[in-house]
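If you are new to this repository, start here. Below is one unmodified record pulled from the training split, so you can see the exact layout before writing a loader.
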Amino acid sequence: LTRIERGDETKVKGLLVVLGGMQPGFARAQEIARLLGRIRKGGMPVVCHAHDFGNSSYWIAASACDHVWVSPAGTLETVGIAGQVLYARRLLAELRVDVDMLQVGKFKGAAEPFTRDGPSDEARTSLMQTLTSVRGQWLEEIGRARNGARERVEHGPYTPKEAKEFGLVDAVGFLSEAREEAQKRADVTQTVPRFGPGAKGSDTSGLVEVVRALSGAGVSSGQPHVAVVRAIGAIAMTPSGSLLSDGEGITERELSRTLVRVGKDEAARAVVLRIDSPGGSALASDLLWHQIMQLRQVKPVIVSIGDMAASGGYYMACAGTRIFAERSSIVGSIGVVGGKFAVGRGLDHIGVSAEVFPASDDPGAEARAAYLSPFVRWDDATRARVLVTMQSVYDLFVARVSEARSLPPEKVAGFAEGRIFAAR
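And here is the target side for that same chain:
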């Protein structure tokens, strides 16, 4: 799309956007819609087709496309925006699992699903403010693009017939019909897949260069360029190695190596660091913050936030020379949460006992030695010590944001405490 917008693809006369089953995050939907909208404003027809629309995919279609199609047996599932959280305190209690969770920041609600039956007032307030902001943007942009849509769009699901009657879509039909419409508007006789299933292209050098850049290898030609580095997923020191892990995520070792290589690459005149992360390891986040700060001493580091840069994700992001985000991107969550689940009581209930053998006879040695044990819960003294370390991490987090963003610490503290925000 960027190449098309720049005019590099001179043979492209129009776009047929086939959304399929995609439901991107709201910020990514906003990003795609904005880019398509610029292409459309440049005079190129943009036609969209989907079998079904959800809240985010309809955002793309309604705000960026000239003509919107939906399949005859499809649905417009625009039903408004909401968040949903499961709270498992009672289940864990029934299973005799002791939850030792602590937090620094009264709005830091990441542990509440395990410690409460519902949200705290602070967590509810923070979440609702963010959802309200995203909803406002969703309604605003859809309403601006399609007359009458603002009043109707939240009250689905709609049948294709209803969606057309209310002006939410322009046509009901199959993809083949939408393709014919796109060809007619662009005054061409064929469509060529350029992205997604079926996409072809004899010139793959651009793709190869992107893959090399994302892997930290740089661009082989040595020509001046902007390096693109992706940091997507939860943050950890090393790969989890879990059987349940899909292999995705940010590891401190790999991302640091990539940033070092990019820093040494004289042809890379600047770096775009794409972050989409809910956070993770505080240690890994701080090490990566340091690496990004080092990198920005030698070349600009432009941070691009996707759907989210929260907690450790924002820890990294704040180190950029400049930060760009969609208005609906989720940012902030400057706070710390940590703890463990102790399953000793549950095991005891089914006939399995856990015994700790401390090497020291010092009072409290047993509790300290079992600090990381998944079988023994913390005693009060251990819990107090853990809270001290977490407070230290929180203070460091605030200080890092203060330094990187050139803000007084007291100002950072004013929007910290674990609050989340829509970037707007």
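Two things worth knowing about this chain: The mean pLDDT is 92. The first helix runs from residue 2 to 6.
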